[in-house]
Amino acid sequence: MGSLGNAAPAAAVPEVALRSGNARPIPAVGMGTAVAAPMNAVLAAIEVGFRHLDTASMYGSERSVGEAVAAAVRRGLLASREEVFVTSKLWSTQCHPDLVVPSLRETLRNLQMEYLDLYLIHWPVCMKPGPIAFPAKKEDAVPFDFEGVWRAMEECQRLGLAKAIGVSNFTTEHLGKILAFATIPPAVNQVELNPVWQQRKLRAYCADKGIHVVAYSPLGGQDWSRTGEGNGVLGSKVLAEIARRRGKTIAQVSLRWIYEQGVTWIVKSFNKERLKQNLDIFDWKLTEEDRHKISQIPQKKYVTAAALFSTEGEFTSVNLADMDIVEE
Ligand SMILES: NC(=O)c1ccc[n+]([C@@H]2O[C@H](COP(=O)([O-])OP(=O)(O)OC[C@H]3O[C@@H](n4cnc5c(N)ncnc54)[C@H](OP(=O)(O)O)[C@@H]3O)[C@@H](O)[C@H]2O)c1
Prior knowledge:
This protein is of the alpha/beta class. The chain has a single domain, classed as TIM Barrel (Alpha-Beta Barrel), CATH 3.20.20. The chain has helices at residues 39-48, 62-74, 100-111, 146-158, 172-181, 200-209, 237-246, 250-260, 272-279, 288-295, 305-309, 321-324; strands spanning 15-16, 26-27, 29-32, 52-54, 85-90, 116-121, 126-127, 141-142, 162-168, 188-192, 212-216, 264-267. Strands 3-4-5-6-9-10-11-12 form an eight-stranded parallel β-barrel, surrounded by four helices. A two-stranded antiparallel sheet has the order 1-2. Helix 1 (39-48) packs across helix 2 (62-74), helix 1 (39-48) packs parallel to helix 9 and helix 7 (237-246) packs across helix 8. The protein is globular and about 55 Å long. NADP nicotinamide-adenine-dinucleotide phosphate binds at residues 32-34, 54, 122, 168-169, 190, 216-222, 234, 249, 251, 266-271, 274, 277-278, 303. Residues 32-34, 54, 122, 168-169, 190, 216-222, 234, 249, 251, 266-271, 274, 277-278, 303 line the site of NADP nicotinamide-adenine-dinucleotide phosphate. It comes from Sorghum bicolor (Sorghum). Substrate binds at residue 122. The active site is at 59 (proton donor). This is NADP-dependent oxidoreductase domain-containing protein.
């Protein structure tokens, strides 16, 4: 992965050059829009300095992201659309070679944009073509044509519809499959990553292959009610103690730790004060002792493929357990 250099003073946020594709450098921090993001929430994120916006066809937030960027340009918060890094994702029902380019064109229509900065395969799971149904049914799962789909992703970049292409929720094994035939290697793997799910093996693998890692759920995710437990990150006693000593919030300690791993992140907040707080992590550092304590935190994955794709057992064509193993 590229080095975290100091970036444009306008945003005062560092950026990372991607090793593959023609995208502008990716900002170290991004705004997530998985939860029905209203246009005003995205606009507030742009206003406080977020320049990476993360959306997906599955989230239903592409229109509000596009409207927020257009509004920000009209209001002079952005000189042009080029000032933001926009990521979107191909959903599992669209993971068929002939559907990839049309799906990206639909995403661009939703966003009212000419190109994406980054287009990702959302999950290494393929479902029958059709409307996005949630949760997915196991009988709709079909084998994933990794080579055919990746060739179509490469076509998206060649056509200039996406400046860079990548994947999300891919393990080292899935990445190996793609790298075996890729003409254009994935620029990014977007995965769950935070002090409670540190992904050490995956990070080392991606660093070796020049694939930049982007962390999602950097504060532990949205809703822990289904697990019957509290949020492992925001509820962490280790992080709370470090936060108290540093005079920071737990959220800031988590986000700073991720940044210090050379990983960029996307966080969701619809609260302007918390948005600002989340950006305020670049003028202080964790100590060696803090890092050691964080390295000892017991690991627990929050987003599980099984919970997303099947409530009634494993898919026939995909071993979902392969995606949830701890790759220490
Ligand atoms: N590729 C994938 O499969 C995938 C999966 C999951 C997520 N994502 C992406 O990653 C984004 C972020 O992940 P996420 O939404 O799962 O979880 P997250 O960003 O880790 O956590 C969001 C939660 O933290 C709260 N929060 C934000 N800043 C805070 C702060 N400073 N202090 C305390 N609480 C704070 C938010 O509430 P408020 O809004 O009230 O501040 C929200 O409830 C998503 O929106 C999506 O774009 C991708």
